[in-house]
Amino acid sequence: MKLPIVALVIASAATLAIVPSCAHDPVTRANAANASASQIARDSRVALRSLCAQNPGARALKNRAKGVLVFPSVVKGGFVIGAQGGNGAMIRDTGEISGFYQTAGASYGLQAGIQEFGYALFLMDDAAFRNINRSGGWEIGSSPSLVIVDKGRAASLTNATIDRGTYAFFFNQRGLMGGLGLQGSKITRIHPQQ
Q1: Are 168 and 145 in contact (CB under 8 A)?
Q2: Domain regions of the chain by residue span
Q3: Tell me: the pLDDT tens digits for 77-96?
């Protein structure tokens, strides 16, 4: 794992835990200044291709989604107070990249360790796009239309069962921290360097 990303995640957690309403903008600006749009786009496309090749449910959703927001590498770490963060790209149904985003979140409780994972949000309708592009960012879990797709649910997805809203898939989990979740994570648009 990249040490600067881990440091950014820990600094973000401390900042978001202390002053959540006004601390988010400086963290977002610092993240965007250190990110490469071409690298995020490349990593996001590779991650989506790999997910769809390995998971028939993801492939079925991709074929009907208006777009997929892919975070190829999210780092999560903590000891009692935890944080997670990463960058991703919105891949539209045309294959075009229509924006870059960061995901960040802070948590507290019984937790210790560090892990890396990726996740993809399949946006099935225009309402899902409006949520993602809110001016202050989108807090995951604030929308009743988010469905976390586990292996059992992925196996049962068909064109007839795909509903409106947003479907989330986790992939490439590595590390020593139990449990993955998106509750409390916030997605914000960034404008990284080319």
Answers
A1: no
A2: 3-190
A3: 877 677 888 999 999 999 99
